[in-house]
Amino acid sequence: MSRILFAWELGGNLGHITRQLPIARQLRQMGHQIFFVVRDTAVAAQLLTPEGFAYAQAPINVDKKRLPHPVNYAEILIASGYADRAVLLGLVQGWISLIRLFKADLIVVDHAPTALVAARLTGLPAITIGTGFEIPPNCLPLPSIRPWETIPTERLLRAEHYVLERLNTLSTFLKGGAIERITDLFQGARKVLATFAELDHYGVREGENYVGPIYTGSTGQAITWQLTDKPHVFAYLRPDVPGFENLLKALSKLSAEIIVVAPGTKPTHIQAFAKPNLRILTQPVQTEQLFKMTHCAVTTGGTGTVSQCLLAGIPLLLVPQNVEQFLMGLRVEALGAGIAVRNSRQEHDFAGLLEDALNKSRYRQSAQAFAQQYAGYEPGCTIDKVIQLIDNTLKTSACSDMNAS
To answer: Residues of the chain whose pLDDT is less than 50?
Structure first.
C-alpha cells in the first residue's frame, strides 16, 4: 500500500478539509497510509482529530504585508510569499522536507500551489482538487478575478512574469526544470475540477472535465423544522462577515422560521437574537433532510453549500466576505437562482433582499431548474472518480519506477 499526503496551504474555514476527508477515509480503508499538512491546525483539530488522522502545520508566509486587492492568481501568489525570494525558498523547502519525511508516494493538493512546486521539484506524482477559483484557467495572461473593474492587461502579464521569474530562479537553484507558464504547475498534476461548470468562478471552460462538488450533508447535529405554517430559512454564516449583526436583525424580523448556523458566534449575540422562530447554532448540522423543507438559504458562497442548496432547488441570498465568494455570487445570479449582496449592508438592505429571495418565484424556479438538470447527482460518485484517479496514478508511477530500474 502507498503513503499519500494531503496538502492544504491557502484559503480558510472548513471547506478544504471537508472536501479531502471523505477521500482520505476511503483510501485509509483500502490500506493506504494518510498524512495531512494543513494551513489551519485548529480546523484540523476539529475535523481530523476525531477521525484519527495525523497532521502537521503547512509552511505559510508569516509576513503581514499583503497586497490589498490581488487582481489575478499570480497576484494571489505574490501576496502569499512569492514576492520574497527567501520566503519562497523557505516555503518550498518546507514542503520538500515534509514530502521526504513522510516518504510520500503521492500528494493530493487542495489549494496548495507551493506544494505543487515541491512535488514538481521532487518528481512526486500529484493530483490537484479544487473549485474553479483554486485551479485557474490555462490561458495567458491569467484572467482577472475582479471582473467588475477594468484591470490593464499589462498588470496581469507583469504579475505572471514576476512570479515566473521567482519560480524559475528557485528551480535553477534547486536543480529543477523551468516552467513557461504558472498553469504548468497544474498541467503537470492530474487535475480534478470539483464543481459544476455553471459554478466555475471563472466561467465555463470548454473542454474541461467538471466532476462535481464534494460535500456532505449527513454529519453534524440532527435538527428539524418546528413550524409547519411558516416559510423556512436556513443560514450558514460566519460572525466576521461584514454586516453580520444587521443581517441577524433582518432575519429576526422575517415572518418565517429561521435556523442560523454560525460557528464562533458570541453567546451575547445568541441571547440577543434568539426567538421562538429563530435558532442560532455554533456547530455543524445535518442538512440533507433539513433542505427538503427549506424555502430559502443565506450563505457566504462556499461551493459545497451553494451546490447542495441548488441541488435541493433552494434559492440563495449570498453574503460574500471575499472575492472568491463574490464571484460565486455572480455565478448564482447568472443562473437566476439567487442574489449576491454588494456593499450596502444595512438592516433595511438585508430585509429587502431577504424578502425578494424568499418570495419572488423566479429565483426558486431557476434553482429548481438547476436541481432538475443535475437530478441524481451524488458526491459519492465524484469521490469514487477521485479514488480511481489516485489508484491509476499510483499504478502508473509504480510502473515507471520499475521500468526505470
So the answer is: none
